[in-house]
Design brief:
The protein is mainly α. The protein is built from 2 helices and no strands.
């Protein structure tokens, strides 16, 4: 039991020192940044498209 706990701690420490894990964290942060930017931009884009379509409908129904 104690040996298993020790091995888990050693594996966690090795994972923290592993540089490949750092790459994964960097990519995750990049994906998060892109997601936040998309959430911020898409409502504005949706409103612009909606306004343009509404103008087009108004012009066509005159």
């Amino acid at each position: 039991m104690v040996e298993l706990f020790y091995l888990r701690i050693v594996n966690m420490l090795r994972a923290l020192r592993d540089e490949e894990g750092q790459d994964v964290v960097e990519y995750a942060l990049l994906v998060l940044l892109v997601a936040v930017a998309l959430v911020a931009v898409f409502p504005q884009v949706a409103n612009a498209v909606s306004t343009a379509l509404q103008k087009a409908v108004t012009e066509l129904t005159k």
